[in-house]
Amino acid sequence: MEKEIIISAHDLVKTFGKGANKVTAVDGVSLDVCKGEMVAVTGQSGSGKSTLMNLLGGLDKPDSGSITALGEELTAVKDTRLAEYRRRKSGFVFQFYNLIPVLNVEENIALPIHLDGKRLPKKELDDVLELLGLSERRYHFANQLSGGQQQRVSIARAIINKPPCIFADEPTGNLDSKNSREIISLFKRVIAETGTAVVLVTHDGSIAAEADRVITMQDGKIISERVRSF
Fold first, then answer.
1. Dihedral sign for Cα atoms in the order 7, 10, 11, 16
2. Beta strand 165-169 with 197-201: parallel, antiparallel or unpaired?
3. Under DSSP, is residue 229 helix (H, G, I), strand (E, B) or coil?
4. Spatial contact of 36 and 7, defined as CB atoms under 8 Å apart
5. 158: left (phi over 0), alpha (psi -120 to 50) or beta
6. What is the CATH number of domain 38-62+78-227?
7. How do residues 38-91 score in pLDDT, each as one tens digit?
8. What DSSP string runs through 75-111?
9. Are 33 and 165 in contact (CB under 8 A)?
10. Which residues touch 154 (CB under 8 Å, ≥6 apart)?
């Protein structure tokens, strides 16, 4: 059965700086992301993996090339429409959690919904809290949570809008091995229960090995792609 492609990127190029300081962070990259798969993007620091994730997630625009997400050409839309795409169709998880310290767990999770001018039904919030094992922490603040718990909150916030794709940039970078494994297990559970895709940027080979596909970058290019054998 053919997989459903939700994001398709072709010949992406992204540069920073000018003249002698010009750096090509992404250099002619083409990549598809399918529904319900975990794609790990790995490589050394400076290889372009985070820049690629930012382009696919709509956090930045390429200098050239195209990105089609859910049938929409992202490189052709205005910044306001791109902001809507990020808010409604993408979820983001980062290494440093990015929780709002004055908001409790459930308020942090519901933030994307409220920013969109909507109200989050209590059952939807309860379901996400249960899925991420946070039901008993719903009124806690970030400084009352462990690193692993804070990352669970950031994952819950990323999936609350039921996005087709979650983009995770070094989500286990600040966690020990036990919590890292738990976070990857949570991503797999989210994929199984919601059908979302996960694009995971990591330098950790053991984390990358858990993905369905592992893409390795070097000097802004994809140098290898490996499909996990089950």
1. negative
2. parallel
3. coil
4. no
5. alpha
6. 3.40.50.300
7. 999 999 988 999 999 999 998 899 999 999 998 889 888 888 888 888 888 889
8. GGS-HHHHHHHHHHHEEEEETT----TTSBHHHHHHH
9. yes
10. 93, 94, 97, 98, 99, 108, 171
Cα–Cα distance between 113 and 100 in angstroms, integer? Answer: 15
Q: Name the pairing type of β-strands 72-73 and 213-218.
A: unpaired
Give bridge partners of residue 27 from the DSSP assignment: 13
pLDDT in tens, 139-180: 999 999 998 899 889 999 998 888 899 999 988 888 888 888
Strand, helix or coil at 192?
helix
The set of residues, in sequence order, having a beta carbon less than 8 Å from that of 102 and lying 6+ positions away, is 141
Distance CA 144, CA 146 (A): 7
H/E run at residue 12: strand 5-16
Nearest Cα to Cα of residue 126 among 151, 148, 103, 106: 106
- DSSP 8-state secondary structure symbol assigned to residue 69: E
Q: In 3D, which of 188, 180, 181 has the Cα closest to residue 37? A: 188
Distance between CA 86 and CA 195 in Å, rounded?
A: 18
Amino acid letter, residue 195: G
**What is the rounded CA–CA span in Å between residue 43 and residue 221?**
10
Tell me the per-residue pLDDT of 121-139, one tens digit each, with 9 for 90 and over. Answer: 888 899 889 888 899 999 9
Residues 6+ apart with CB under 8 A from 164: 6, 35, 69, 70, 89, 90, 196, 197
